[in-house]
Amino acid sequence: FRTPLAAIQSNSELLQIMSNSMDGETSKRFQKVTGRITGEIGKMTEIMDDVLILGKLTSGNVDVKPEELNLVDFCQKLAEEFDDVQHDGRIVEIVTEGEPHNVYLDSKLLSHSLSNLFSNAFKYSKGKPNPELIISFKSKEFVLLVKDSGLGIPKDELPKLFQPFFRANNVIEIKGTGLGLSIAKEYTEINK
Fold first, then answer.
1. CA distances from 191 to 60, 107, 186 (A)
2. Nearest one of 45, 28, 35 to 12, comparing CA atoms
3. Are the beta carbons of 162 and 182 closer than 8 angstroms?
4. Which phi and psi (to 5°) does residue 98 adopt?
5. Nearest Cα to 124, choosing from 152, 144, 92?
6. Alpha-carbon dihedral of residues 118, 121, 122, 128, nearest 10 degrees?
7. pLDDT tens per residue, range 129-169
8. pLDDT higher than 80, residue 43
9. Rounded CA gap, 192 and 18, in Å?
10. How many other CB atoms are found less than 10 A from the CB of residue 34?
């Protein structure tokens, strides 16, 4: 899949370069079309990456490397990465409950899971208050809760929530693959 997509991408870029020498209206039309092609290549690449991750998960080929982790620092750094790319000024607000302690996790798996949840929190709650990450520490466990004021998922569709390729009927207009939550769930379970 990657080879044909690369060929499509390079030819699209070539068309874009050629359009620069055309008259104004034709050039605009070419740029609109090549922009659409590039956008669709991006979507296809995202789907392929998610499918490959899902394949690794189902085959049990995920490399897990747990390490001691300062969870609060880790979450603050990850949240800042999301804060920096928000065009509407929203940020992830972090709330800590209980006595913080280090945890033993695979940071890459945790990063992927939380990144998906942060991304969804921003994507599905445009124009709403900041999403929150609540980190609750208990003596022998911790809970991470990502809270937003978004669309929500219709109650009758909740049983399908973690099925690969599932997208609720109220988000059809918002781009996504329907794989993010199922991957985040699998990574969370692997991370125990």
1. 13, 9, 9
2. 35
3. yes
4. 80, -175
5. 152
6. -140
7. 999 999 999 988 999 999 999 888 899 999 998 888 888 88
8. no
9. 53
10. 20
